[in-house]
Amino acid sequence: MPPKHLADLDLAGRRAVAQASGEQAFRANQVSAHYFGRFERDVDAMTDLPAPARRLLADKLLPPLLTPLRELVCDEGATRKAVWRLHDGALVESVLMGYADRVTACVSSQAGCGMACPFCATGQAGLTRNLSVGEIVDQVVHLAGVAASGAVVGSPARLSRVVFMGMGEPLANYARLVQAVRRLTTPAPEGLGLSQRHLTVSTVGLAPAVRKLAQEGLAVTLAISLHAPDDELRDELVPVNQRWKVAEVLDAAWDYAGRTGRRVSVEYAMIRDVNDQPWRADLLGRLLAGRLAHVNLIPLNPTPGSRWDASDPAVEREFVRRLRAAGISTTVRDTRGREIDGACGQLAAAESPRSGVREREAAQ
To answer: What positions constitute the catalytic site (predicted)?
Structure first.
């Protein structure tokens, strides 16, 4: 695992580290205020700290976790995607998406993914390792700083939402995911001070972990990556379904909704001639009828060389019509980043030595 970072620790833990290093405990508060309150990740910019303390605390509390490899911008400046190299060479991605009323960060919880969904670039790459709490949080703090700089065109200069929909299965890194959520939602200087209601945790359906999450006392949105309403097809598209079937996954989701009062988001990638048949829309409607749920249809962003492609727009519209006719709240996700390999895992795959593509310096 990477070196210990202040984001891995609560405020008391950071103060203890400062004291053990021969510094006064309040120095940890100062560093934390810079990091979480001003999104400052460079200790040399923390000029209210004496120079010797800066160097010492940089080593103990702010070791570098993410080294930028590439940053690509599209959608007229509203979407920014970054690829990071971690301390051990693993690669992860994060994305910043600006809208008229909000800015959303999409972050990774693992390097790679072990869920092996065949239409997903990350799933095809396999799992490298879990990320630490610090590596997860540092993605968000970096993106919050980008938003605060005004770089996201046409959007507020403030990060307000985080979705754990980047690389990896968040609930397969359960303990660190929950710690990261708490760090992001605790007020500064201990954390970033975001609203729990503005965080979304996505999962392919690790049913026991969903039930455990329901008991954490959190108010985050749960997103279930369903992608098929029937076990026969979902066994192929989401291999973990061979262990936890559709009924069990949805039952765990309804438990989460019942305990938290939060509406469950059902994610459904629209794949041409695979899962977009009208009868599957009808079946999905029956499964969700009367439940606290919303369907988010996702036009598939195909990966290079993949046999999977996005549904025809007319087919997508009919799928939406049938779900809404069944009384199911349904939207189609805004497609972002197609011209910059927007599907999660595509850029990291391109930067990997295994791809044969030479690594490049971070582009501004």
So the answer is: 93, 344
Residue 93 designated active-site: yes
Q: Do the annotations mark residue 168 as ligand-binding?
A: yes
Range of the domain at 130: 67-355
The domain boundary, picked from 21, 38, 61, lies at 61
Could you report the per-residue pLDDT of 183-242, keeping only the tens digit for each?
A: 999 999 999 999 999 999 999 999 999 999 999 999 999 999 999 999 999 999 999 999
Identify whether 294 is part of a domain: yes
17 with 146, same domain: the answer is: no
Residue 32 to residue 190: CA distance in whole angstroms: 7
Catalytic residue among 71, 93, 135, 267: 93
pLDDT score, position 209: 98
CATH code of the domain in which 258 resides: 3.20.20.70
Helix, strand, coil content of the chain in percent (nearest 5): 40, 20, 40
List pLDDT tens digits, range 315-361: 999 999 999 999 999 999 987 765 555 455 555 655 654 433 322 22
Q: How many angstroms separate the CA atoms of 173 and 109, rounded?
A: 7
Q: Does residue 1 lie within any of the structural domains?
A: no
Q: Note whether 111 and 88 are same-domain residues.
A: yes
How large a percentage of the chain has pLDDT more than 90?
Answer: 86
Type of residue found at 264:
V
Asked if the structure places residue 134 within a domain, the reply is yes
What residues contact residue 247 under an 8 Å CB cut-off, 6+ apart? none
Confidence tier at 106 by pLDDT (50, 70, 90): very high
Is 155 annotated to bind a ligand? Reply is: no
Statement: residue 124 has pLDDT above 90: no
- The count of structural domains within the chain is 2
Q: Is 169 annotated as a binding residue?
A: yes
DSSP per-residue string spanning 28-67: HHHHHIIIIIS----GGG-TTS-HHHHHHHHHHH-----E
